[in-house]
Amino acid sequence: MAESLAIFPRSAHRHYLHGTLLALALALALLATLVVPWWLGGRGTFLAIAAFPLPMFALMIVLAVMCWNINAARLRLMLAGRAGRLGQASALSIEMASKFAICATPGGAGGPPTFLALLTRRGYSPSQGAAIYLVDQSCDMLFFTLMLSIIVTITMTTATDWPYQALIESALLGLIVTILLLILSLYFLPRLLRTRPLSIGRRHWLGRSKRRWLARRLLRCRRSAIMTLQLPPAKLVAIFALCSLHWVLRYSLLFLAVVGVTSMGASNENAPGGMSDGMATWAWCFLAQMLSMATGQLSMLPGGAGAAEVSVGALLLPLMDREQAAAAVIIWRLVSYHLYLLAGAPFFTTHALRWLKGRKVRSKLTAS
Questions:
Q1: 10-41 and 322-333 are packed helices; what angle lies between their axes, rounded to 10 degrees?
Q2: How many domains does the chain divide into?
Q3: Alpha-carbon distance 361 to 354, whole Å?
Q4: Shortest CA distance to 33 belongs to which of 280, 236, 313, 239?
């Protein structure tokens, strides 16, 4: 028994267990993204998928590839040479490996650590990488806030009758509050770090050395974020323009899936006002994907599997038949999830093998 424990240390057992659970969760996610819509749509789902135009599917793949390259270009602009010479191919490699980690882990939890680790290999510290990630996410939230504001304004000033109006307004309010909290946290961070830490009795949550360690990294992250925001205005505009273009193209995938499915079948005459003939407008498809991204975080499976399909399907049901909605969801997920996993796996594997090789070399040098 002692020999077996020596051969398989406790840490190895823990890593093996975590890897097994993650692989099982990913397998269930891949299955759920196909089975859940199929179960909701019934037998007619297969016929709707078989009739989907191949040129439309090819266009969706082209848009996905464009999104990857746009994000890589945005990363290069945000780093502005601070992580060494970063070409488009290298930036695309970081983008694809990070996207794979996001899609392969529950809640996308593996994305930020992968992103920070890849930047660390280029001499960019984790705190600085966290600042770049924070700026990237802030650009995304700003874009969604602007889009939701435009959509809510249109619905309030026109006769357009969209379902779930209260849900749309709640999402807008939540985004605005989140952005304000980020701005306030960034501005008041030094003052917050100088306040007396919380304690239970005479014991603090963190020791003095750990508090200093955390404070240094938070301040370094804040400094790097401010440096990024102090880039020339032309670069900041270009970063936000690339962010907007990425999300416009990415969130057009569901619209193209809906157009392809409904072009081969009958329309729903009971569609809400402004979306007649069973055809969902681009704006409603945008909202459906955005709300599904939020509900997908509630799923314990990678990629929000199960929750994303149910939420998008529910939002599409007022616009088209059940079989068509299920087929559109499956085709959309094939491009927006399965393709991301398939294309990102080689990049993630390559970086992981390089990391393991470097770790072995470092251990040999340490031993010698």
A1: 150
A2: 1
A3: 11
A4: 313
